Amino acid sequence: MLVEQTLYGTVDKVAEAIHILREYEPDEGYYVAFSGGKDSLCVYWLTKIAGVKADYHYSFTTVDPPELIKFIRTFDDVQIEHPGVDKTMWQLIIKNRIPPSRKARYCCTILKESGGKDRIKILGIRAEESNNRKGRQVVQRDDMLGKTVINLIYHWTLLDVWEFIHCNLIDYCPLYDEGFDRLGCIGCPLKGEKGMLRDFKRWPLYKQAYIRAFDQVIEERRKRGTLRDWHTGEDVMLSWLHLNSNKPTSDQQLTLWEDDNSCVLEQKTKTTMTRRS
């Protein structure tokens, strides 16, 4: 719940978030990484309630759900940005000569995480979402990089998020009502095999676009003499889905290609995210 009774008294999570926003507000305003999902909606409206200066940025990856983009366009103050026409998901796949994976997240680095340099950046990540996100702080300062990141709703639960949205009558992307728990890139390997298959069933043209990119990857590897056992983009797609399955293997690691220029794709245990009941 957003308001809880603890041994140390009453905790009001909304009031705490507003206090943090006002305490750390920079003169130039906050850089808010906006994804259009339920968590970033909470961050967006908390900055509005706090009355702090902020600008909002959505990183367009070229594999974004069309319904999500349509929803984001309803926000007049959210800037939709892309690092350049030479950096589509398809071109990155061909350049790296492997599909993205939980281990090789080159797409996130270039398409999603490059914004907000030298700014106080607000993110909507929560500790509950995955083991990888535990152990952080609400306000994180990296003196070496000269960067401050505020994980504004870090200690919020999934129920807290939906309570805030419903109690404040906040509109959200209709994909949640179709049963989607996360709205990231179509085919994102962080969703695991089940989530990826669901995406490709919902948006089949994107699956075909991935396969076309994989065909070009094979052609590039054939030129370099580093091709292994795959001969078509369909072969790569099947392997890609299996690599991101949550089923353990004997050595917990699978390799798509191994040569001096390729990355090893490691299989990790999929973290299950629970949606509102």
CATH architecture of one domain: 3-Layer(aba) Sandwich
Indicate the structural class: alpha/beta
Strand order of the largest sheet: 5-4-3-6-8-7
Strand content: 5-15%
* Shape annotation: elongated
Q: Rg, please? A: 20 Å
Task: Give me the number of helical elements.
Answer: 9
Q: Please provide the count of β strands.
A: 8
Could you walk me through the main structural features you see in this protein, from its secondary elements to its overall organization?
With 277 residues, the protein is α/β, with parallel strands linked by helices. It has a domain of 176 residues: HUPs (Rossmann fold), CATH 3.40.50. It is built from 9 helices and 8 strands. The strands form 2 sheets. Strands 5-4-3-6-8-7 form a 6-stranded mixed beta sheet, with helices on one face. A hairpin with a 4-residue loop joins strand 7 and strand 8. Helix 4 runs parallel beside helix 8, helix 7 crosses helix 8 and helix 8 crosses helix 9. The longest helix has 21 residues. It is elongated, with a radius of gyration of 20 Å.
